[in-house]
Structures are given as C-alpha cells and as structure tokens.
C-alpha cells in the first residue's frame, strides 16, 4: 500500500514558523516518496499566488518557493474554496498546478484508507 499524507496549513505570514513547518514537512514527505496533498487554508491561501512565496522570509528556513516546487513536482496543493473566495482568489490567480476545492474533497482525502493527516 502506498503511503499518503494530507497536510493542512492554516497559517501564513501571520505565523511564519507554523506555516513553514507545514511546507517543510510536506516537501520532505514528497522528496521521500510519500504521496502528498497539501491544503492551504486561511492566510496560507495567499502563498499559492505567484510571487507571494518569494516574499516569505524566515531565518534558518528553506525558501518557501523551493518547498512549494518540491510539493508540486511530486504531489498536489489545494486552496480551500471558502478561503479563496474570502480573498477574492480564483484558479487563474494561483500558481500552475494548484487547485481550489472544498470540504468534501478534503474529507474524501483524509478518510481514505492508509492516509495520515496533519494540521499546522
């Protein structure tokens, strides 16, 4: 059975350390062959907009844009439907490969057999 991990990032630039942990764990899992799905909610939704990750700074942390690239190369990034709507974001506003989906898709992913879920 393939290993799968769903991570929900609930913080963005408002809580940089917590935000960076979610992206670091997601990228590390992706790089080690784990099937990864990273969900961006709340302020983390902004980081799916081109150029935003490049503005993110946290001492001693890998560049967020690099972490996003690693996740997208091996997994999926999803922005919460309601979070995108509250910020006026559409699919056209997001990085290539990032989708918008809602709670039913999240529930389907986290309840699938063999999936582990983390929330940051």
In short:
This is Putative peroxiredoxin. The protein has helices at 16-31, 52-55, 64-74, 81-86, 103-110, and strands spanning 4-9, 35-40, 76-80, 98-101, 115-119.
Can you describe this structure?
The chain is an alpha/beta fold and 120 residues long. It has one domain (4-119): Hypothetical Protein Ychn, Chain: A (3-Layer(aba) Sandwich). The chain is built from five helices and five strands. The protein has helices at residues 16-31, 52-55, 64-74, 81-86, 103-110; strands at residues 4-9, 35-40, 76-80, 98-101, 115-119. It has a five-stranded parallel beta sheet. α4 (81-86) links the parallel β3 and β4 (98-101). α1 (16-31) packs parallel to α3 (64-74).
Broad shape: globular
Q: Figure out the total of helices.
A: 5
- For the terminal residues, how far apart are their CA atoms? 26 Å
What's the CATH topology name?
A: Hypothetical Protein Ychn, Chain: A
Tell me the count of domains. 1
> What's the CATH class label?
Alpha Beta
Helix and strand content put the structural class at alpha/beta
Q: Please name the fourth-level CATH homologous superfamily.
A: DsrEFH-like
Determine the fraction of residues in helical runs and give it as a percent range: 25-40%
Rg is 13 Å
Looking at how many chains there are and whether they match, the oligomeric state comes to single chain
CATH architecture: 3-Layer(aba) Sandwich
- Percentage beta strand: 15-25%
H-E string: EHEHHEHEHE
Mean pLDDT: 95
Please state how the strands of the largest beta sheet are arranged side by side. Answer: 4-3-2-1-5
Major sheet description = 5 strands, parallel
Low-confidence stretches: none
Number of DSSP E strands: 5
Pfam families: DsrE
Protein name: Putative peroxiredoxin
Organism: Allonocardiopsis opalescens
């Amino acid at each position: 059975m393939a290993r799968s991990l769903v991570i929900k990032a609930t913080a963005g630039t408002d809580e940089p350390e917590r935000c960076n942990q979610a992206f670091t764990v997601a990228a590390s899992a992706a790089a080690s062959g784990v099937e990864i799905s990273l969900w961006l909610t709340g302020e983390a939704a902004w980081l799916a907009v081109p150029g935003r990750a490049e503005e993110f700074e946290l001492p001693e942390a890998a560049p967020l844009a690099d972490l996003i690239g690693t996740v997208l190369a091996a997994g999926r990034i999803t922005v919460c439907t309601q979070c995108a709507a509250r910020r006026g974001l559409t699919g056209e506003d997001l990085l290539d490969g990032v989708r918008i989906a809602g709670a039913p898709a999240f529930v389907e992913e986290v309840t699938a057999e063999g999936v582990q879920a983390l929330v940051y």
